[in-house]
Amino acid sequence: MVRQRIPAVEGWFTLDAARPALLGTRCKACGTMFFPREESFCRNPACSSTEFEELELSRRGRLWSYTNNAYPPPAPYVSPSDPYEPFAIAAVELEREKMVVLGQVVAGVSVEDLEVGMEMELVLDRLSEDESHEYVVWKWRPAEA
Amino acid sequence: MAAGEVAILGVGMHPWGKWGRNFVEYGVAAARAALADAGVAWQDVQLVAGGETIRNGYPGYVAGASIAQALGWNGAQIGTSYGACASGSQAIALARAQILAGLCDVALVVGADTTPKGFFAPAGSGDRTKDPDWLRFRLLGATNPVYFGLYARRRMDLYGDSEEDFAKVKVKNSRAGAVNPNARYRQTYTVEEVLASPMVSDPLRLLQICATSDGGAALVLSSLAFARRHTTKPVTIAAVSTVTPRFPQTVIEMPNFATDSAATLRVPDVGFRDSIAKAAYEQAGLGPEDMDVAEVYDLSSALELDWYENIGFTKPGEAARLLRSGDTALGGKRPVNPSGGLGAFGEAIPAQAIAQVCELTWQLRGQATGRQVAGARAGITANQGLFGHGSSVIVKA
Q: CB-based contact (8 Å) between A68 and chain B?
């Protein structure tokens, strides 16, 4: 049976397989950018706007810091592998947005392969699956030159 | 302008551990100890301010009243506060404000928790796709130690801190905890033992990450006028800071996926964690140089070093050097976490910020047997609760 490939969360990233991007919003009044998307009230304390436009975030950024999960996180995390495989987590600073965004690091890249300041890029990857779905999420990986 | 002061008439704790009993028992034990210490009858308490636990069902969510009921209803005013790790200081802030406003003379502040084993996970059940605390586990597997690991690695990269430095925090706190009868962990560790424990979230190992504990802590607070009728020279609370961050908040915080964007707005001059202590110092009309002792939230060993800088005990980047000097150990110039800190206690969430104040009170009264900071006259607590609850209390003799 072919599992249907669906985003693990709706509207947080594009499903462009080659050049995926995180989807945030920008306040139409003050220009403040938000991720995850803010669509109700602008969080700039000096702005009372309620109007936003969708925004694709930069696909690349610099590694601000990183760590890993040597043990399986608790539910609602669902491990994609059995037995559990530790995975790294990256905090990546986007230059244009001046924002640090977390994400899992793709399988096969461990903390030994990472260094603060290195360039990272966004990809889509499997988060977990059940009988009928493969859930897709954004992840970071060291950028290709 | 310095804020008004309230007196700490009594302090009490139920020892931390993994006792597996109802949290109310720990709360009652701590409350009775604090009332006995104060020499105040339970029937005379006019306000009960409880820190709530979200891990213990409906009674936990209304912890102030659950503990008041167990003490025997006395008709007091009641309040229950939640601010995650800052719940205890929210309860202290409630009691202090009512006393300073003249709405009551004497209040009981109490928090207690019974915790499950293992990682903290979102409370409740079901899919909550709008709740960042649920989503961070679902989409990222971002446990609390993941955030602590990010901060620790950042220190290593920015300041050259080493894994050995972080291990030394645990070693220091284990020595203090070993002589504290309320601490859960009484064993002392060496740097080698800490660094041989299993990796949890690189570079942090099991012995460097705060456990979850059962425990209870309580304070009896009063107006200075009421205190004068009970005691000669009470320890007082000179400040309670519960500030939020300012926008844009540019440090990644639990349970968030991203920081605020600083692309279009000026970044605040003072970062969130610095601002927590700064607000407390301003209220008290005191500065870091006036502090003799501190209790800070070492959720990880590395995080204790961040707090040294955040509370102004040293400059950014200098915390590991301060640690290595021995100044923050028992017997040092300005000990931090003489109780043993979370490293020796584990966290009993709604009780922990109250327990920090209990420890400072014992220190300022000269009653911290075996771990006494000589001549301590003033101290500061610092922590923060999930989603942006600052927490800092200044206590003075």
A: yes
CB-based contact B96:B284 (threshold 8 Å): no
Instruction: List the end-to-end C-alpha distance of chain A, in Å, as a whole number.
Output: 37
A21 vs B: CB within 8 A: no
Q: Is the dihedral of CA B303, B383, B282, B377 positive or negative?
A: negative
| Cβ contacts of B260 on chain A, cutoff 8 Å | 43, 99
ipTM of the complex in this document = 0.97
Element (H, E) at B279: helix B272-284
C-alpha triplet A61, A67, A71: angle, nearest 5°: 140
Q: Say if the Cβ atoms of B262 and A99 lie within 8 Å.
A: yes
The tens place of each residue's pLDDT in chain B, 397 residues long, gives 467 999 999 999 999 999 999 999 999 999 999 999 999 999 999 999 999 999 888 899 999 999 999 999 999 999 999 999 999 999 999 999 999 999 999 999 999 999 887 777 777 777 888 888 899 999 999 999 999 999 999 999 999 999 999 999 999 999 999 999 999 999 999 999 999 999 999 999 999 999 999 999 999 999 999 999 988 789 999 999 999 999 999 999 999 999 999 999 999 999 999 999 999 999 999 999 999 999 999 999 999 999 999 999 999 999 999 999 999 999 999 999 999 999 999 999 999 999 999 999 999 999 999 999 999 999 999 999 988 999 999 999 9
Q: d(Cα B210, Cα B187) in Å, to the nearest integer?
A: 15
Taking residue A85's Cβ as centre, other Cβ atoms within 10 Å add up to 12
CB B281 within 8 A of CB B239: yes
For B247, which of A44, A68, A72 is closest by C-beta distance? A44
Helix (H) / strand (E) element for B88: namely: helix B87-100
Nearest to A104 by CA among B251, B260, B139: B139
At B89 the three-state DSSP class reads helix
Cross-chain Cβ contact A98/B257 below 8 Å: no
Residue type, B26: Y
